[in-house]
Amino acid sequence: MPMAFKDVNTRRHIGLQQLSSLASPGRTFLGPMKSHKFIVDESTNQSTLICSAVRLIESLDLTSAAGQLLNETIQAQNKEFKTGMSTLLFLVGAWSNAVMECLQQNVPVPAIVSVMSEGLNSCCERVQCLQIPIHDVKKELSEEVIPLNSRSHQGDDCHFNKCLVSPLAGFGSVASLVKAAGDKSSSVLSGSGVTASSCITKKLTHSRHFSPLGKSHFSSQQDNFQGYLSDPCGCCGLGHLAVALSHGNQTSMKLLQSIAAYQQERAECRGSSQLNIAEIVTCCLLGLPESYSCVSPGFVTLVSPEQATVIKHFADKSLRILLMDGDLTEQYRHLGFNRPRNVRTILEHPNPQESRAGDTWLSRMLDVLMSLEVNVVLVKGNVCENLMEGCIASRILVIGCVVWDVLHAFGQVTGAQAVTYLSQLNASCVGSGAWAELWKASDGRAMDLGELVPVRLGAGGIPLLTAVLTTALPSRAQLLEDQFWTLLYRLHHALKDGKVFPGGGAVELLCLSHIRVLAEQPQRLGNDKAVRELPSPWLAEYKSIVLQALASGWKQYLSVVLCNTAKAGSELEAGASVDHHLQKAAACASPSAYVLEEFRRGGVLGDGSDPFPDHGKTLKVFDNVAAKTEAWRRALDLVLLVLQTDTEIITGLQRNQLLNSHVSSEFMFL
Amino acid sequence: MSRLEAKKPPLFISEPLTRDAVSQSLSLLSGILKSSYGPAGRLKQLHNGVGGCVCTTSQSSALLGHLSVSQPVLRVLTASVQNHVSRFSDCGLFTAILCCAFIENFRSLNVAPFTVIKISKHLLSLCMDYLKSEACACRVSVDFSNVETLVCLVRSILTSKPACMLNKTEVDHLTMLVLKAFLFTVPCHVETNAILGKCVIVPVKGTRVVDSTVLPGLLIEAPEIQLGKPLAVKRTGSNAIKTALFSVSMAGDGFNPEEGTIAVHHGVSLEASELNELLNLGKQLVKDEVGLVMCQKVMHPCLKQYLKENGVIAVDRAGLCLMEPLGRLTGSKPMASIHSLSLGCYGSLKDLCFESFASKHFIHLIPEDTVICSLILCNRSETAWDELKRVCETAEHVLQLTMKEPLALLGGGCTETHLASYIRHKSSHLPANTFKDLDCSQTQYQLVSDGFCHSLETVARSLGHNNGEVLTDMVYGHCWFVPSGSPCVSNWADLVSKCGCGMNSNTKDLNWRFLQGQSSSPIIQSCPKEPSEKVTDLLTLECFAAKCSGLQVALETANLILDLSYIVEDQN
């Protein structure tokens, strides 16, 4: 196993260049107005519709070391927060470029590392004063009337509906969309089969960033959600928080409001104010318009028509339920069990009646199920098809590929104990009190979705909720699911943090303003051990360059969001707008007070040309605290980690492979 | 028909060190190691080039572990360093860089290798005698009744590897955790032969470093444990929990023959009989009032179910690494068979509870009085976590070594430059019979001594990575770093504020000189002094035992390599 080395530490750092180029396609995912992308696989000609940094990263070639680290970083943020990945990806690119410029100006690496990381720390401490406790948010939001219109399609939905009419026109052409946005007389929602309500005067309503819309422009038709939203007092706290965190995504927002209302009721019983993510699952139904999306208590899933007939036979019966945490097949053995290899079976007296040995397992299993009068079996893994048929004939409903959280929820309320093998089954493992029915849409519309039928299972007091995501476009299913989970986690983390940030660029603007202050105070930075021994005049020379680099990340972030949302025609114009606000903030005695005041007035980076300036009260938008600051930190950590790397060492590859490759001249061998 | 090929004769390579290929590889390796050294060291990305996981590191153990070197000369070097690291954990890069420097400096001298070896051994003994003497001005004693020096020692180790990606708050937090974990491993009641306990690192990746924590006892991951439910556990008469520990697989596949074939009659199920054995074992455990059954490997779900129904908590997949600490913690003897249970094998525990960190769930084993603890270590990214784990292990090991020998050496290059100053001073004041004893001339001695000092200074110089000047003062012999791009000034005092270890400030003119290359004029050095005012906070310190060993290993390895006259390579 020979070694190869590649020097990467030139003034044009290869690793940083790779990060920069990998991050560049992600800029259109910033802000509430995201442009979708088609990922086309040239070998199969299949394409996927994506609209998030995570899905983008999944589709990119990440064989380079920097790419691998970027992927790892994005996945870690996704795993913990499910939000902030686009911000992370964007800042990785912006800061990589900024750091490369510092290298061009001969700023030593330790100075970049020290000043940037301490600068970020300082900014994170500074923006703490903007945090708003959840309690205050709920109170404030509850005092405002939040429109809950499920049939008016705005914000992101407009974009989508337009795509529905003419998919090609919608993608990658933000400019055309932007034109339509300002034109009140034109309706982009024609012929889509979805009611275009009178509210299409302006695209972005719940924009996290800009141009909130006066409340009177909503048509307040509440439908579908009377079930959980009929009690405005009980749920408005969480529900309104959900709105404020949804950043304009109507469909997911409505689902979240229902979930919030439902869980709040339970939370009051439990005495905990947190959202329980483990009690929520999703089910995608293709073939229904998106307006049919809703939250159903219990477990909604798709089954075959044959299984659906079993449910019809159940009627209103209380069902006995069995939970299995493995596969339900004859060959399945628990994880860690090594199959016997060298065991031979000797048959001394062949008995022709036992020839169909394979069926004995089947009949034994069916006997077990019948004898314990099991009606429903939820299986974590796969189910043997023959057994499935046998069960249908015996009117036992067997559903495979059920996630552990669902099994757990049913176990809690029915008393069922999950088992691995049917052979270990005894009466105490079987739960009771479950029910099953065919799932119906809110208008009772029959579900004829081709080969699969949606059904709903539950049990008395089950805390489980299913977000049923409906769409007529199969390519959007994944996207809708991703968006739903993102918003759900935003609400979850807002409650977990106990506080939120004001949205709309407020936090980033304060960071920019704070960096100005830092640049003017020489003593505030550079206490790190790595540069401790450096005298301040030396550090001061580089400090302003490096702080500018740090600031440029957030400035570009704000500019790109302004452009993406058509609040600025060009990044130049957007940058000027940000500068204008920075000057105004600097002129104030307290920049944080300025930022908060602007936020309260309805948008930090509003450009004053709001068409509805008279509507004093506007919708608030909030951001997560930990998700945002962690995304910053992860982005900077990655850039600084790559910056400090000067050599790649390739292990495992054969020397000849490298010698013969076209990059062999870049390597040295030991 | 088989075809026989004549054996190739072995390849003899004489004077390997004079070969270009060898010196190129040596300087390449030396360059890689030097560039990785210290808190401002550059990182190396180790990966397979086709999308495998990336290890970003500047640690000798990770670097040398991945290097597979084809040059026999370099293999001698890396093996020595790895052996040192396996015994001391720390100072691996120091050893390797110093060894390379010795080879490079001594090779260029026009002195016969055996003379070089003799003189350098004498120089080493001067160093070691000085380091072990009370007069040594580059060491500090570590007071275990005061946390201050220990904090400096741990902090220096944590900050020496930039790939951990720690900020100041995180360094402070982890320093305290590492110290706390170490103190847990020190037995409270010391008898004649006290044995230090063990700190087990529990990985929680993808979260903030400040979420890390230390708990007494052990954690076993238990994904299926349901949180929020009270933990009902069976206790014995004395209110303790009786425990059983199995190192054998309880998955029910024990009948698998290692080799050969088993023939069974139709209708006989080995699986069923094995399960039956397991259930019999379960019955015995229940009868013996065991409250917690732990298994290194997998437990059969039926056995788990049986135990659960009888109020016994069963945890499987504990893993090999936990077996020894689990045995020490509970006093259980690991059972390697499911057929023989003896009462003497059971252990006991004070309490059990559930803990969860990020998305991981654990069962926490709380002992009565323990020297075993768990460090739940968090870091945001996988690559930074791996580096941080290695660093924390090093820090724990260094604390243990320091407990045996409560001394520390000044870091930041100061020990190296101070030793060089001391040797320069000492070697110019040697009694004449020394040269006779060593069978060398004074000139030869001076040449080797210069090479020796240059080598030490090379290590100190490798701490500066940005083309800045590195200085040493003629008063204390400490090491000073001038930032790159600094304007040319006549007075160095304007540019340096503190020496590498942090002991000295530039309050007065300390008569600085450059620390680079071979100087033409001999350096007249007086004996380096000990600073009058002792600074105790924010010092950079290094492990005494590890550094002393590193110095010896570096020289002995260099001498071994210098003495090589042939390499015999088997060509077959």
What does this structure look like?
The complex is a heterodimer of chains A (670) and B (572). Chain A is α+β, with helices and mostly antiparallel strands and 670 residues long. Chain A has a domain at 299-335 and 358-463: 3-Layer(bba) Sandwich (GroEL), CATH 3.50.7.10. In chain A, 46% of the residues lie in helices and 13% in strands. Chain A contains 24 helices and 18 strands. In chain A, the strands form five sheets. In chain A, strands 7-13-12-8-10-11 form a six-stranded mixed sheet. In chain A, strands 17-1-18 form a three-stranded antiparallel sheet. A three-stranded antiparallel sheet of chain A has the order 4-15-16. In chain A, α15 links the parallel β10 and β11. Chain B is of the alpha+beta class. Chain B has helices spanning 20-36, 60-66, 72-88, 92-107, 113-132, 147-159, 168-184, 270-287, 301-309, 320-330, 382-404, 414-427, 433-438, 442-461, 544-562, and strands at 11-14, 43-47, 55-57, 139-141, 198-205, 213-216, 218-221, 241-246, 262-265, 292-295, 313-315, 347-349, 351-357, 360-366, 372-379, 407-410, 470-473, 479-481, 512-514, 541-543, 566-569. In chain B, β2 and β3 (55-57) form a beta hairpin. In chain B, 49% of the residues are buried. Chains A and B meet through α3, α5, β9, α19 and α23 of A and α1, β2, β9, α9 and α11 of B. β9 (343-346) of chain A pairs parallel with β9 (262-265) of chain B.
